[in-house]
Amino acid sequence: MIMYNPLHPAKNMDLRQIVYEKIKQAIVSGIIKPGEKLSEVELAEKMAVSRTPVREAIRQLAKTSLVTLTPRKGAYVSLPSISDAGALYELREDLEMFAAALVSVNPPEKELKEFLEIFKHMGNDTDPQKYLEEDRRFHAFLYQSSGNRFLMNSLQELVDVINLYRPYSLGDTEYIRHLAEGHVEIIEALLARDEKRVREAMRAHIRMSRARLEAYLNTHTSERLPLRP
Q1: Using H for helix, E for strand and C for coil, what is the string for 136-148?
Q2: Which domain holds residue 134?
């Protein structure tokens, strides 16, 4: 007699998770832009799946604030608002200052020196996508290196929304150099194991990003904000 195994691979669940991750990545990377409507039919066709896992993925994404469900209109990729940006970056500032302070106790020198070389060689002529990629990698590395799993989990819950907002914080490309210099200051403070300096550098970096984001949102009030390529 063959017994039913409740731990048998859940293929349908796997498919739903795959669809969810693919749509989420398309949103965070800017392939599907803020303000754009999510069509279940089009997404299902592109991924060669039925509409059911797409519908479930969209509902799940709505819980993360990446997607907004509008009655009788459908689902849209969330548009950043000034009030939401302020609330998010206030929380981000506190959490990332704490994470960086924890890392300063025993900084992973090899990886930090590699990041230091990357950001030292960035300027206003740096490809914005390259900066964003390294920026995401660096902050994710700090989260993981904090050694506090509860803090890391809290930051991981926010990271998708932070990544949605990140491209707007660039402003014009002239700010890439300033933002890269902020990373250099954070890393040098970490390598010096100077917790106070680390906190101040992280606060300054997050506040600069927030200021650029709010300035951009203040001057772009159309229904669909253009995401930087």
Answers
A1: HHHHHHHHHHCCC
A2: 82-219
